[in-house]
Protein: 12604_t:CDS:1
Amino acid sequence: MSKERNENESKDDRTQHRIFGYSLSDKRAEKNCIYIQGKRYTFEAALGSNGIIAYKIKEDAISSDDFYDFITQDLNPKAF
Structure:
């Protein structure tokens, strides 16, 4: 059976390395491959009835302290 792959599906470049492999019975197939992950960004925004009130873009994930700073420093002054 063949399955067509949709290029718009969420995947990364490691997917093709996980599908096929041979190993002894009761052993997991292993394949060493190099994977380089690109940069990731986090976008936080506050929406109001007239559109976007405030937004912040940060590389990597945000922490709870980053979110608190967004609420108190970026959003709060614009709310009043």
